[in-house]
Amino acid sequence: MKGFPEDFLWGGAVAANQVEGAWNINGKGVSTSDMQLNGIHGAVTQRDTDVECIKDIAIDFYHQYPEDIKLFAEMGFKVLRTSIAWSRIYPNGDEAEPCEAGLAFYEQLFAEMAKYNIQPLITLSHYEMPYGLVKKLGGWINRETIDHFEKYAVTVFNRYKNQVKYWLTFNEINMSLHSPFTGVGLEGNPDEQQIYQAIHHQLVASARAVKACHDIIPDASIGNMLLGALRYPMTCHPKDMLEMQKKNREWLFFGDVQVRGDYPAWIQRYFSENNIHLDITESDYADLMNTVDFVSFSYYMSGCSTWEPEKYEGSRGNIIRLIPNPHLKASEWGWQIDPEGLRYLLNDLYDRYQKPLFIVENGFGARDVVEEDGSIHDDYRIDYLRQHLIQVKEAIKDGVQLLGYTSWGPIDLVSAGTAQMEKRYGFIHVDRDDQGNGTLIRRRKDSFYWYKKVISSNGEYL
Ligand code: BG6
Asked: Which CATH number, 3.90.1200.10, 3.20.20.80, 3.30.1070.10, 3.40.50.150, labels domain 9-456?
């Protein structure tokens, strides 16, 4: 392979709760994301009343999507990744019948994409679930949540079987270890036993969704989604090497179960030495054998691991704390920029899983300046993406089978970590600030024209 394959899926990725707004419109129930007013890192707030949150309107994609999709089409997108808000379909998670208005909304959204031959790549659950299931069942700690999720998955597979051929189960499924409310709907301060039990249920639910997808839409592909938390050893000390392996395995564990259909041996040892006893039934083991068709992941940064953490100051990753690498520069939010790490990770994941890969998030969060004439010169963003795509191309030449690349936030959106608008990822600028002021007007940035050329040249021009 000399470069990007002919059928490479170029595009962008967003998530329902970061773009749609309309948080309580047309029957939608309260989701766990609606309760995180200040993002994943903030406190959880009850939302039975009308407390204001930037996500309530977000970028108003719910109403403005035709215009936004037209702009994506202008850049030449082949694919758009977004998610379905589960609480639009089953507002509390356990209703007997789905909400027709919610189903109709996504049907129209996918029809709009089809007008421009943009394939939808749909995440079933992107950092949200109906809060009703948290209140009634305690979230994923309860086995019943698996059945509710399966019912939701079956509902959307049946409804969109002619419209959607690429699916993902849970966004960054490994992040539940670090933010259990966001990932598995656990309130308070759950212990490791509870977190891993909830994760187990979610892994079973993911496998059941894979099976349902294969049964209902035989010509579709369904993948998992991992937060690519690549670690290097801080030094070449053998103990750092072992620590690096341990940290990488913490997140690769999820992929191991989803791709191989079973728990790896090393985690059994970890469970028994840490007094973690999971309730895993015979039928759970059978369900887990329904493995994914491809492996997708997000990649923003890398970090280091060491057996002597007290020697180094921790840096700010988004969800996972990483020790800074002295050879790398960081963004304003402390995310270390490492394009070569992406080539390494692509090779490593492909060696490990031998499944097609899909990069479903990668991007640069930065503040932008709108010039008087309305132009936005975001050469820093172009540079970040270019450097990463150069390494993606190298990985393809190394022999990695890669289905596509969807950069994160092709249009400015609300950040998941901190619920900010000013941490912008887009090729398209949205006029809205952290306080919620602004006209919501869309503007093309310099990166818009750059990415358009990248796509039209199929990655020859970078
Ligand atoms: C990923 C998430 O972790 O990172 C996205 O899947 C998120 O939802 C993205 O937006 C970037 O993080 P942030 O905090 O800058 O929005």
From this structure: 3.20.20.80
Q: Nearest residue CA, atom 8 of ligand 1?
A: 416
Q: Which atom of ligand 1 is nearest to the CA of 365?
A: 15
| 165 CA from centroid of ligand 1 (Å) | 24
The per-residue pLDDT for range 169-182, each reduced to its tens digit, is 999 999 999 999 99
Provide Rg for the chain, Cα atoms: 21
Q: Ligand 1 atom closest to Cα of 408?
A: 9
**Nearest CA owner, ligand 1 atom 9:** 416
Q: Which one, of 175, 187, 163, lies nearest residue 224 by Cα?
A: 175
Ligand 1 atom closest to residue 418's alpha carbon, by position in its atom list: 14
- What is the model's pLDDT at position 311? 85
Instruction: Look up the pTM and report it.
Output: 0.97
Say what the pLDDT of residue 165 is.
Answer: 98
Query: What pLDDT is recorded for position 46?
Result: 78
pLDDT per position as a tens digit, 47-102: 766 678 999 999 999 999 999 999 999 999 999 999 999 999 999 999 999 999 99
Instruction: Quote the pLDDT of residue 48.
Output: 64
DSSP-assigned states of every residue in 117-155 = TPEEEEEEESS--BHHHHHHH-GGGSTHHHHHHHHHHHH
Nearest-angstrom CA–CA distance, 82 and 231: 28
Domain boundaries, the chain: 9-456
Nearest CA to ligand 1 atom 14: 417
Residue nearest to atom 2 of ligand 1 (CA): 416
Around ligand 1, the residues with Cβ closer than 6 Å are: 15, 18, 127, 171-172, 227, 298, 318, 361, 365, 408, 415-418, 423
User: Which pLDDT belongs to residue 314?
Assistant: 64
Range 307-327 average pLDDT: 76
Q: Which of 361, 394, 422, 460 is catalytic?
A: 361
The question of whether 361 is a catalytic residue gets the answer yes
Rounded CA separation 327/341 (Å) = 12
CB-based contact 331:324 (threshold 8 Å): no
